[in-house]
Design goal:
globular, alpha/beta
Length: 151
């Protein structure tokens, strides 16, 4: 099966709030838009505030799925399925369901490797994607900095 690549990012040394802006910046640098999806509305609120303030010298422009002109935002924070901004990258947090991946080039699942429930859910999702015949990759935080592809 071709189409959307599935990349798993295993957090071990840093928190989601440190990693997500960096990955979103790389996505935008490719010329892609992004959706960040979670099932937790409180996570959306946290990320909404964080992406405006995570660096003193910059911010990451984004919108919420229910706001006017979400279709124009480079990054949309969402709790529902859909792709209001024509994103090519889908970021899944907190075990959110992928849904239909036909419109995406890449689906990035970020999970906390120190949380047994999150680790178990990531393993379940990995197996499901493999069973579908999808191309999957596993990225782990390197000893010093950055990401190392493990599988």
């Amino acid at each position: 099966m071709s189409g959307c690549e599935i990349w798993f990012y295993h957090l071990e040394r840093t928190r989601l709030e440190q990693v997500l802006p960096e990955l979103l910046e790389k996505t935008l640098a490719r010329g892609w838009r992004a959706i960040v999806r979670t099932d937790a509305p409180e996570r959306i609120e946290q990320l909404d505030a964080w992406l405006w303030t995570y660096r003193d010298d910059s911010f990451l422009a984004h919108g919420l799925e229910n706001e006017p002109m979400a279709d124009r935002a480079p990054v949309v924070l969402a709790t529902s399925q859909g792709n209001p901004n024509g994103a090519k990258a889908l970021f899944l947090l907190d075990g959110a369901a992928a849904g239909d991946l036909a419109e995406f080039e890449r689906c990035i699942l970020i999970f906390d490797g120190l949380d047994p429930a999150a680790l178990g859910e990531a393993r379940r999702q990995w197996a499901a994607f493999k069973d579908e015949g999808r191309e999957v990759a596993y990225w782990r935080q390197g000893e010093k900095k950055g990401w190392e592809r493990q599988a």
